[in-house]
Amino acid sequence: MKRYNYILLLLVYISLLILLAGCSGNGYIPVPPQEQITPGHMAVIWYDWPQPSGNGFYSFDVLLTIEVDPGAQSAYYWAHQFAFKNGEIGYMGLQTNGLMQGEWVGKMAIFSIWDALAAEPGPGASCEEFTGEGEGWSCRIKYNWAEGRIYDLRVGALGIDEQENEWWGAWIIDTSSNQETYIGKIKVPGSWQWLDNSSAVWVEYYGQVNDCASTPYAKARFEQPTADDGSFIPNKLTSVIGTTCTNAKITLMENQGVIFETGN
Q: Which residue, 47, 37, 84, is CA-closest to 186?
């Protein structure tokens, strides 16, 4: 009997040791660290433009207003994406905290084209080749955009070089002061022709968060998209909510306008 009781007590003691080993000091079983996620594109509006004649459109303009600034520690990008008739895509826009020559510089304007040939920066800007999600050239400049101000995002053809390749430039225009900031120019093969009849505006969160609910709240408005110095406007707008994080709202307005609300 004594031997039986001894074995029973020993089993209880071992069970308690195992239980305590799996608990933290406050009595809760520790939860493994949660993997962070990158929300990516949270909301998109596709512009269906009229079919351009000849080589395509030589310029795009769209107005952007960031109505609620999510703060310097966030990682938002609001952009207009375009494509060439016989070539790759590019985009330009504003970021809350951009990377320039390997350093985080805060608010920034950026202009990029995939599979481009070369680039030259505007005053105070820099251009660099990129790899990762494809290859290409990107021009970037520190740009202290302000909440509530309206900015014109403009991309346009600048002419051809001796080998008949085409230079494209990008500008940010503060419509309150008419101050124009030239980001730089990027060269693409002449065979790409000009801009195609499909483009998109979107909001991306390129940083990492613990979960979708941790994405900081932001609100921005795109409006009055035009091509060829106001000669064309889109025929149709199509809205798409992102797949990784769906906590986004798209509100369509007049003048081909749209409001993006993202995060919490």
A: 84
